[in-house]
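Self-study notes.
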Amino acid sequence: MKYEVEKLAKSQVKVSVAYTIEEFKPYLDGVHEASKSNVTIPGFRKGMAPESLTNQALNPHAIFESALEDAVRDSLKQVSEEKDWTIIDKPAVELKEDTKNISFEMTLTLFPEVELGDYRALAKKNQATLEENLKKVALAEGEVDKTVDWLRNSRAKIVLVDRAAKNEDVVQVSIKTMDEGKPVAGGNLSKEKFILGKGRFLAGLEEQLVGKLASPEPIKFSLNTGADYWQENLRNKKLDFEIVLEAVYERELPELTDEFVKTLGKFENIADLKKNLEEGILAEKKIKEEEKFKAKTIEDIVTQSKIEVPDIMLNRFFDELHASNQIHDHSEESHNKLKIESEKRVKGHLVISKISEVENLNPTEAELDEAITHHETEKGTFKTEGEFYDYIYGIIQNQKVFSFLFNKPETAI
């Protein structure tokens, strides 16, 4: 067997393969013999008919096609091993006209090669900037007090009241939504509770409840959705609503005292709580700053690297992003943004994988076993064990690469 390789764009190659008639004959003979044993001739036991009759019953075209499949499989295995290729998609095979040989072309999509930029220098530069930024991390005015207010609100009691609803009350409603007299899918809610005035629903809906008393009589009104409504099929439409305001509840916030603070955790007093919150908020801000610089470092490395991403890899990431984000906007602009984000993520993954390979940072079996045990409760959220394994592998690989880039000790998974 002889073959020639032609490099194509986007991590594809074309492999032209030629078998001489003598080289291809064993494939034909093998399929021919295997096919004879499956032929049934009336009047003869299976496999006992004369060869002349058996040959007449065989389909020469089917035998050739099967022999060609075997030759393609063997040539693909040989070429990929000799070239050290990882093939990531089913090859496209085309038989070529050749009077002397059995010739065909295989178009293969390979795991892309990555020519890294100077990732060490980029990481060092970004780390210096990060360290300066971390020194500037500070609390905003009133930030701790806002968190304390949030805690009080989360512990608020609701008390049924006999008065008109106002903002900050909890209301219970049942809602019917109609579009030109037809029910809107997902637009009917029963005994739904929410805090009035938080803007949870279509603009203008909650205002219709302010000042109203609980009553079995529905409140009827119409609202326009506008051009940017999240459901594309309902944009720029007038929707009709019928809302029954079933109950109004007043929210009673607990008083901020040392006794209340002790119910939130192991805090001695209000000052102790605020100190703990201050430390927690600062720590969270620093983590966000670090994550931002991790992403920027990878983006900078991608910019300086040479990567040809195959379409199939981009399409897979695009489909995953589309599914995971439950995209409702199907406009061309939204589609293009998602494509750009898909390419960005693919290249980021490839860069991390390449750095891991070059610096010998790939996860060890012991690290994988430990992490799999630690994340065992998450296993049920994945369709297959393979997906779960890939998820764990990616967590460890990312951690090791970033620990290397930013000269930080690895933390427990």
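Second protein, same conventions, sequence then structure:
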Amino acid sequence: MQKMIDWMTNVLGPKLSKITQNPWIASIQEAFQIIMPFILLGSIMSLISNLRGISFLSWLPYSSKVSDFSFGLMGLMVVFLLPYLVLKKKGHEPQALIGGFTGLAAYLICCMPTTTEEGLQAFTGSFSASGLFVSLVAGLFTAAVLLPFLKHKFVKEDGVIPAYIANWFNTLIPVAIVIIVTAVLVDGLHINLFNVLANLLSPLLTLGQSYIGFLLSYFIMIFLFAFGVNAWAVAAVVVPIWNMGIQANIDAVAAGGAATAINTTEVIFNGWLNIGGLGCTLPLVIFALLSKSKRLKQVGRAVAVPAIFNINEPTIYGLPIAWNPLLMIPFILNAIVAPTIVYFALSTGLCPIPSQLYQMSFLPTGLNAYFVCNSFRGVILWAVVLVVTTVIYFPFWKAYEKQELDAEQKEAAA
């Protein structure tokens, strides 16, 4: 175990840190962080929609337009932010806004607008999370075209020509290339990029929504967390799968079908796999509060409030779980057992699959289990996961507590 810890700390950890600091990867992660208020707003509307089902709360104001023009515009937001952030991180902040608007223009072309003599009528493509991969490709393509031209500028910003005029000439050609290439693909060659990418990525999305994909996406985050590496190191891969999954469920239910995508933020963070935080660490916090060890009891008091709201970085690094073999083992075991229980319950219909946007993981743990699926069966599943993870943690905790008590007794005797 010590060799594994040393390898994760000294070899894999630094490499993953380097990857997450890459401007391209960091820009994808930051783009999703920036638009989080819009996702939360759409989630609040979903919560209000559920609450309106309770007779004495039916008066609560609700409009689907709020969700449509918040979470429903995710594709537009991401395609603007991606080239903007990449250029900014690459040292081209004066041209970053131009990059964002260029990506936006390219994406709108990809959405295949329908025009008549009366003007713009509709877009065939999607502005929402269902078009997220087109958004990512368009945004990254825009940045990739702009960067070489900005690195080797035609007009030098040496003071002879005003900076804003130099900026016009230096960005004109790459902007034209992006828009013309996109227009040729969509209008000239009649390529529907949404369908093309959907077909190309279908195996990945299918795998992502399978039991193996669901298990891996959760297990990898917990495994990294166990070694002190931020679980969001894999965000650039899993977040698009999660967001497209919940959008697919929303669309399916709206069309009269059934939700089938399980690998979503709603399931992992807002339903049943984030009890006290990733790895379902609430039992450890309860154990700490009841511990005979003075140090563990103090840590329990310090991390209890964050844990109630599903924030467990203090627990991970305070108990600690990270780099602590006695707690790492059950932490990783629960990363296999808990998602297996949840996937089985959802896939067999024992509990409804979330079919609406609901990303309110900051609410007290347990409440979300009902609201995320609008059923008390969600609360029952939450309780089952809590009990099972508690049973798995317990023997390892007792061994760790004994170790701490022995250390405290030796200190007192010294």
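Instructor comment on the second fold: The first strand starts at residue 113 and ends at 116.
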